[in-house]
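Homework-ish question, so no full write-ups if that breaks the rules, but can someone show me the predicted structure for this set?
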Amino acid sequence: MGTTLAEKVWADHLVRQGQNGEPDLIYIDLQLMHEVTSPQAFEGLRLAGRQLRHTELTIATEDHNTPTINIDRPNPDETSATQLSTLERNCKEFGVRLHPLGDADQGIVHAFAPILGLTQPGMTIVCGDSHTSTHGAFGALAFGIGTSEVEHVMATQTLSLKPFKTMAINIEGELAPGTTAKDIILAIIAKIGTGGGQGYVLEYRGEAIRKLSMDARMTICNMSIEAGARAGMIAPDETTFEYIKGRPHAPTGELWDQAVAYWKTLRTDDDAVFDAEVTLHADELQPYVTWGTNPGQGLPITASVPEPESFSDATARTAAQNALTYMGLEPGTKIKDIAVDTVFIGSCTNGRIEDLRAAAEIMRGHHKADSIHRVLVVPASSRVRLQAEAEGLDQVFKDFGAEWRNAGCSMCLGMNPDKLVPGERCISTSNRNFEGRQGKGGRTHLASPLVAAATAIRGTISSPADL
Ligand SMILES: CC(C)[C@H](C(=O)O)[C@@H](O)C(=O)O
Ligand code: SF4
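A: Not a homework solution, just the prediction itself:
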């Protein structure tokens, strides 16, 4: 019997196979790092008097606690300032490469690495961050780990793990205009639920996936964790190789040819069997928007806020009831009738250059609705910011009445000054709509950059087709 892509990458990194139900020992090719989940790991190494096993295989950036304006001034938040200075001190002491705030390669951990060509097919990549699944878009086995595991990887370059189960997610057909990778993943999570992927590596396959750019594939893999999965992967193909070629860390010359030859073997065999399989038809998809407080509580934009009684499952019913109370929504309200205060375009889900281009395309020649309080456009990495500025997108955003910011996690989560105030309603291109996620009492509707941009023009949740 053949094997799946995930199983191939796993097998190629097996240091020692676990006996009698014990976990396997897996080699880790790359560890990415940020300020939030690294301090205790460094402290652990320090206390044990250890060094990194492979200093060159851990690379850090600053993203969660960084402000996105006045970055040359002292951080206004003391805790954030301490987090950042601690990372800087730790990286210096242990010799870890760091892209700090102000560096041209600084950015959200899941955005800066692919841009540098650090993320490559067939690698095992870890980070103390759940959205590490993003890197699976390249056919890497990439997943979030806890702080003690971060320390373990630093010390040994390995991890002790039980193999993941495999799930195929087939996306057949083609996306209609106005629908995007974000709608695919929101629809998947709405279908399988926030626990549907638990224990699995998801492999996204099918015609719609093959046609997606790398930026779009990253959007999909990014949110695998929101379905509860350990990781998400897409088999590498010409689109992948084309993206990597010529990037600073991409192999060159003969090594490039060897790499591509290996990467081409990284696909699920025709006779391989997945532990589970789900199919979705891209051509039937509409733009998706969440109405609740978990990423699975999403619906097509033309739907109405559901009645909690419509859920047959008691837990789902209570969850819907609580979500509606928190979100300040009445059942039966058309999603398109919901007025928002704030628009956030950014994050490791949708802050890449193609997302900004798509948003700018819609905003060009328009101005934000008067009822919209603020529109934040935040590039996922400093390279994306530079690229956008070279293309004049920053001017389009500014003319529109949006704020053009420096790179970072920004309003994706309330760990930096970009926060919602209680009751503020936001349409956001990020990946989590949990209570308080974007600031205490803030209300989040997840959507694509196209929907966010159209909403900024009309003031109520809208798709480009409504313009
Ligand atoms: C802070 C970090 C550990 C966290 C994560 O693991 O994902 C954050 O990035 C998030 O998106 O909630
Ligand atoms: S942008 Fe959001 S989801 Fe991504 S790493 Fe930052 S906080 Fe986490």
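Now go work out the reasoning yourself. Hint: The chain has a mean pLDDT of 98.
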